[in-house]
Amino acid sequence: MDLHRQYENIITNKKESFPICPELVIYLMRYERYFDFDLNYEDLLRWEAAFPVNDEEGNDTYWRTVMYDRSEQQEINDRLTRIYVYLTADLEHTVMEHLVVDSIDYCLFGNSNPFRVKIRNLLNDNHDYYYIKRADASRVYGLELEEMLSPNKIFYLVNENTLVEQHISGIPGDQFLKHNLHEQGHNLVRLAKEFVKFNQRCFTRLLGDMRSYNFVVDMTPDFDQMQYRIRAIDFDQQCYEGRKNIYLPQFFKENYPFVEMALSRLGEDSITQYQNEERSLMRRRVAANRYQLQRLIRAMRQDHISDARRVGILKRSLAEHHKDKGFLRLTTMGSILFKHINLTLELKLRMPKGK
Predict the structure, then answer these.
(1) For residue 342, which of 270, 294, 275, 273 has the smallest C-alpha distance?
(2) pLDDT digit string, tens, across residues 58-105
(3) What is the spatial distance between Cα 50 and Cα 323, in angstroms, rounded to a whole number?
(4) SS3 237
């Protein structure tokens, strides 16, 4: 981890959304991510009324609970339940009779303006969430790379202009810093170690904008102490921005408490050790998903998920970082990512020919 404390807000404009290209559709169909559901994002925009959702302190959360015309509400609820059944495990439709839609919320904030669907099981009163968003190629690439290069599993489906994602559990990073960090029982060394490894994962796969509100802290009690996992929940900034620091969570001022924790609790030698450990683990993940990763990046290399200016900035920055002028010949974010992964993880992957 670079130990210079350079924190800055370096993303000012809302990210452009990119359509799902034919090559990516072929990839998604091959790996059973493409699904024909009978409800799309635009259908959910036709609500009749909306009510603000406030937090426990009465503050606006930028979510609105939406209601539909009575003649449409039941049909929408049935379709949303059916999507949930397919998303969670392709379960038998007989389970649908035990599931109901508790609420549908619309988010006013962020790039994707998602709908959050709350599903409740009538048998045990347990509930779960999932999200419906406009399909954005950047986000789909980010979800796939998360599945292949991180220790986390991701469940999602795509159909034309609609993306469906399962909820990722955990405490939002900003809320964790505000309400949970100073509680008794936390092992701050383990938490700092996880932030170092998360920082390495994000940079290796070029996932940007990992400010504290774009990731969650997942805590699992072990027999003697707490285990931590930091998980990204926003994948819109996959290979989009030009500046290298955007792909390093350590450089966002919102993450300063995590960085300070790592510097004070670990020291430079331990930080280097944990970075090496994570790169070693990522090499194993690449080995386990080698051909799928190559197919994904082959589609990505043909796709345009950023503009020429940002591509130019990033390839020059990474050419300097890796001391490799080969970056300067590249023209797409997919090509830059492929070379960057190879060099960062010391791999010798080659892009196979054909489809």
Answers:
(1) 294
(2) 888 889 999 999 989 999 999 999 999 888 875 555 567 789 999 999
(3) 54
(4) coil
